[in-house]
Amino acid sequence: MNGRVTAVSSNGEYSFTKPNRDSIRLLAGLGVEGDVHSGATVKHRSRIAQDPTQPNLRQVHLVHEELFVEVGEEGFKVGPGELGENITTRGIDLLGLPVGTLLRIGDSAVLEVTGLRNPCLQIDNFQGGLLKQVVGRDEAGNIVRKAGIMSVVREGGVVRPGDTLEVELPIGPHRPLDRV
Fold first, then answer.
1. Which has the minimum average pLDDT: 33-47, 90-104, 126-140, 148-162?
2. Is the Cβ–Cβ distance between 114 and 102 less than 8 Å?
3. What is the distance between the alpha carbons of residues 173 and 106, in angstroms, rounded to a whole number?
4. CA dist., res. 104 & res. 108, Å (int)
5. Are 93 and 119 in contact (CB under 8 A)?
6. How many domains in the chain?
7. InterPro entries from the xrefs (predicted)?
8. 100 occurs within a structural domain
């Protein structure tokens, strides 16, 4: 399974969206250099309020560009970085990857997938009704989250639009993604 990076984004301040960049630098064990969510312990405000010593399993947020097309068919206009992701991808079913999957990006960066993004009401502040497009229920009534995946940086490196993205599935039984 291979794909491509279509955009990279970061922001040093808390905001819902992240501006696109020419490149981002991933730092092992921390996240995106200069990004507000970078760090070994949790950086998301709601998580800090619960327990600021928790490990940061949400260092790097990835969203598949195909989601933008899907929500576009429902009348929403969303582009790279606008859902707060650091890396926008094309060609890989991010939501179908198991926990522990390694994503090799560009020349040297390696991410380990930790789980699904659990979208919040800020999405509706960005565009009213968008939350219902990225969180829903399947036929069995189970919650389906589509707002991307979260990861930690195992090996650092520079990531740019156009970089290849290679998937390395974990050995052994695969555990499906859950919210982190």
1. 33-47
2. no
3. 27
4. 7
5. no
6. 1
7. MoCF_Sase_C, MOSC_domain, Pyrv_Knase-like_insert_dom_sf
8. yes
Task: Note the pLDDT of residue 90.
Answer: 98
Mean pLDDT of 8-37: 96
Predicted TM-score (pTM) of this structure:
0.96
In the numeric block, which tokens belong to residue 115?
């789980």
176 found inside a domain: no
d(CA 157, CA 32): 10
CB 22 within 8 A of CB 33: no
Q: Is 77 contained in some domain?
A: yes
Q: The domain containing residue 146 runs over which residues? A: 2-168
Q: How far is CA 126 from CA 23, 62, 113, 143, 176, in A?
A: 25, 18, 26, 22, 29
Cβ neighbors of 173 (< 8 A, separation 6 or more) are: none
Q: What are the strands of the beta sheet with 31-32, ordered from one edge?
A: 31-32, 24-27, 157-159
> Mind listing the pLDDT tens digit for each residue in 160-178?
999 999 999 999 899 999 9
- Report whether 119 contacts 149 (CB < 8 A): no
Q: Would you state the pLDDT for residue 167?
A: 98
**Residue 174 belongs to a domain:** no
Q: How confident is the model at residue 58 (pLDDT cuts 50, 70, 90)?
A: very high
